[in-house]
Specification:
By secondary structure, the chain is α/β, with parallel strands linked by helices. It has 13 helices and 18 strands. The strands form 3 sheets. Strands 1, 2, 8, 9, 10, 11, 17 and 18 form an 8-stranded mixed beta sheet that branches. It has a 7-stranded mixed beta sheet with strand order 6-5-13-14-15-12-16, sandwiched between helices. Strand 10 and strand 11 form a beta hairpin. About 2% of the residues have low confidence.
């Protein structure tokens, strides 16, 4: 067995992992990324390629390093197609948008981390987590081309993605680390890169469309005017092949894709749930998809993962300098995540809960009646407001959906109360259980109001 020793070991060379490792290296500590893929394939990840918040990234990997992967910076809005109501909603999206070449972005991220001094171990499949007698995580063990290899570290950062194996292997029972995780809180995503002969008319928009089944949606994101990321997301309890066929049927029905060529196919899992209540344990931090750091209404997770990686690394560096990698010493990481985007994502998850209890035709009718800018506010900030005149105009357009509007309004108020509660996220692990009791009381009211089954 070969053993490597580092201050920090990061599992996964995705966005969270690369930003975390680069941040650690920039602080002068020894850090390695352990990646299951080979050097050529690393960075090739299934993704919608849309990036919100393209103007703001952590400084540990300079934006100039990844800028060449930004293939379309002219996108400025969402286009929501609702065939059942013969309606297309043009939805403004706040903040800077871009569509990227995800594989090129992944390569550039890795290059940026290498430039910072990060060591990479490719072709290494992590199979277990090592722990001290007191439960502190001390590293990981895996195989590199058939040989057993072990990585010892003061702090291990889990950037291994959704439903991470590390969390199954580690004994986290002595920590507050969130283990309330089920497959039903995740969705599968599948995408194809499609080349068309003529530029599409909507090359400045992110196109969304519901599938024939309530559990999914289609997307068409233009990397360029002739290279389209076409994909779909669907809950894991649905039959994937039937939904993939929905995508293929829609592609065949759209004239702009006649004679198109598919150049790449890939699938993945992603969280459509609130961020983990706690993503820390002694010697252990999870970041990015591995901690539910994804906008649960849009599936966007790149920017959140980048900042989660930064926050995880900064807390690890501080803890190592103090000689204390206990959960108390790592806890501030959770606070920073919740303050930056975690509370907002928890509020947005309420709308996912609502969607599971609303008939898909009624939901589409309600969306068709809502003003696009207000829908955008709800999708990205979790909060929205409407003037009395706008409410009256919306009510007139949505005759027949007033019961749904009442439920939506009541749910919206509860979502905002939930976000306000996340503003009071505890400053120490020992206070988490009391905070959770009040949060769960709010969730019970949300389930009662929406009629949805409990998600957690």
């Amino acid at each position: 067995m070969t053993t490597h020793e580092y201050d920090v070991v990061v599992v996964g060379a995705g966005t969270a992992g690369c930003y975390a490792a680069a941040t650690v290296a920039n602080a002068g500590l020894d850090v390695a990324i352990v990646e299951r893929k080979d050097e050529e394939e690393a960075g090739h990840i299934a993704c919608g390629d849309a990036l919100k918040g393209a103007d703001a990234f952590p400084e540990s990997i300079p934006k100039a390093q990844i800028q060449p992967a930004f293939t379309n910076t002219d996108v400025d809005h969402g286009r929501f197609e609702i065939p059942s109501h013969d309606t297309v909603l043009e939805i403004p999206v706040p903040g800077e948008l871009a569509v990227i070449d995800r594989w090129e972005y992944g390569r550039l991220l890795i290059e940026g981390a290498e430039n910072a001094g990060v060591e990479f171990h490719y072709d290494t499949v992590v199979q277990d987590v090592t722990q001290a007698d007191d439960g502190t995580v001390t590293g990981v063990r895996g195989k590199h081309k058939g040989d057993v290899v072990e990585f010892e570290a003061d702090v291990t950062i889990d950037g291994a993605g959704s439903l991470s194996l590390l969390q199954d292997k580690a004994d986290l029972s002595g920590a507050t680390f969130d283990t309330n995780v089920r497959y039903s809180q995740f969705c599968s995503a599948y995408r194809e890169i499609v080349e068309v002969d003529e530029p599409v008319e909507w090359d400045d928009a992110l196109v969304f469309k519901p599938t024939k089944r309530a559990a999914g949606y289609l997307w068409y994101f233009p990397r360029t005017s002739t290279t389209i990321n076409a994909g779909l997301g669907f809950q894991m309890n649905e039959q994937p092949m039937k939904l993939v066929e929905d995508l293929k049927q829609d592609l065949r029905a759209r004239p702009e894709f006649e004679g198109a060529t598919v150049t790449d196919k890939l699938g993945a899992a992603l969280p459509t749930r609130r961020p983990y209540d706690s993503a820390t344990a002694p010697g252990f931090i999870a970041a990015g998809d591995a901690a539910g750091h994804v906008n649960p209404t849009t599936g966007g997770g790149i920017a959140g993962a980048a900042y989660a990686g930064k926050y995880a690394a900064e807390q690890a560096v501080r803890a190592i300098a103090d000689g204390d990698v206990s959960e108390d010493a790592l806890w501030h990481y959770n606070e920073r995540v919740m303050d930056h985007f975690g509370g907002r994502y928890a509020g947005l998850d309420v709308y996912n809960v609502l969607s599971t209890a609303v008939d898909v035709d009624d939901l589409m009718g309600l969306l068709a009646a809502l003003p696009g800018e207000k829908l955008a506010e709800a999708l990205y900030s979790g909060k929205t407001s409407m003037s009395p005149l706008l409410m009256a105009q919306t009510a007139f357009k949505s005759a027949g959906y007033w019961r749904e509007i009442k439920t939506f309004y009541q749910t919206k108020r509860l979502a905002e109360q939930l976000m306000n509660h996340y503003d009071r996220y505890p400053t120490r692990p020992s206070a988490l259980s009391g905070w959770q009791i009040h949060r769960d009381d709010l969730m019970d009211r949300i389930y009662e109001t929406t009629g949805a089954e409990a998600k957690y």
